[in-house]
């Protein structure tokens, strides 16, 4: 029989082997959490064993998106057990651990400490962890990506110039931290009026694809701005879990992330 220490070493090695895919954005409100939830679900549907870590201390929205609002994780010998969700993607969120109002004042090292509890939880056979990072490029994000070397980062932006400039800063942060950029996603691109059918571009169109080409990083795809995405998200039913019109866009992005 192996000694206790040997068992610990094996467990640690297994944890390190898990792939961490960070989802980031230059600023809030561009759909980073929406993409993280749908990417996790789409990867799970494609056969990966996926867990979701909500590290957005400023606005942890994954419990609501994944329909487990109010459920707190249990712990076994101080190691957290991820909360099962209806979508086959277990979840741990900062919002399940602390009052977000208090977390707002956290410095990078404190946030990294809390993130450690989420990442080093009992993820079992999970092979991929999708990490919903806080928006922006502050020391919180830097501490997180440096401590838990992500396998790669997916950057989300709207097509708007200002959002893209912020996204460029986020890309820079990952570059400096040595985290490869998996690619850029354009969200809220193109709105089709449900009444007249005419298409318009509230935040412009194609800006992210052009920016990706300029920055020499892969462009992963475009998610339209739709009422269905907003209402389904609010109801805790991420579109990628269903077969609606918007599911395909998320599945296409997941296939490129998986490639
Ligand atoms: P972030 O994580 O970047 O702050 P969220 O994912 O929380 O952004 O999205 C902000 C709001 O915009 C949410 O109400 C969400 O439902 C909505 N939203 C995100 N993407 C879309 C989209 N493509 N179409 C419609 N609403 C969207």
From TrEMBL:
The keyword Iron applies. The keyword Kinase does not apply. One of its GO terms (molecular function) is ATP hydrolysis activity. Keywords: ATP-binding, Hydrolase, Iron, Iron-sulfur, Metal-binding, Nucleotide-binding. ATP binds at residues 26-33. GO terms for biological process: iron-sulfur cluster assembly. Binds and transfers iron-sulfur (Fe-S) clusters to target apoproteins. Can hydrolyze ATP. Homodimer. Belongs to the Mrp/NBP35 ATP-binding proteins family. This is Iron-sulfur cluster carrier protein. It comes from Sphingomonas oligophenolica.
């Amino acid at each position: 029989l192996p000694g206790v220490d040997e068992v610990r070493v094996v467990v640690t090695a297994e944890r390190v082997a898990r792939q961490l895919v960070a989802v980031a954005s230059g600023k809030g409100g561009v759909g980073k959490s929406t993409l993280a939830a749908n990417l996790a679900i789409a990867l799970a549907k494609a056969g990966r064993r996926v867990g979701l870590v909500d590290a957005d201390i400023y606005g942890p929205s994954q419990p609501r998106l994944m329909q487990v609002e109010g459920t707190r994780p249990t712990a076994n010998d101080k190691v957290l057990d991820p909360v099962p969700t209806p979508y086959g993607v277990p979840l741990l969120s900062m919002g399940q651990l602390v009052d977000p109002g208090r977390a707002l004042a956290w410095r990078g090292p404190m946030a990294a400490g809390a993130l450690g509890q989420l990442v080093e939880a009992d993820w079992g056979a999970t092979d991929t962890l999708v990490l919903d990072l806080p928006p922006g490029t502050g020391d919180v994000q830097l501490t997180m990506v440096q401590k838990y070397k992500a396998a790669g980062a997916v950057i989300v932006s709207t097509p708007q110039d200002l959002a893209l400039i912020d996204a460029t800063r986020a890309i820079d942060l990952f570059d400096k931290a040595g985290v490869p950029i998996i690619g850029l996603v354009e969200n809220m691109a193109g709105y089709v009026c449900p009444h007249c059918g005419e298409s318009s571009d509230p935040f412009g169109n194609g800006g992210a694809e052009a920016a990706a080409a300029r920055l020499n990083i892969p462009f992963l795809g475009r998610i339209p701005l739709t009422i269905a995405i907003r209402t389904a998200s609010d109801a805790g039913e991420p579109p990628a879990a269903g077969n609606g019109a918007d599911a395909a866009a998320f599945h296409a992005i997941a296939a490129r992330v998986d490639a």
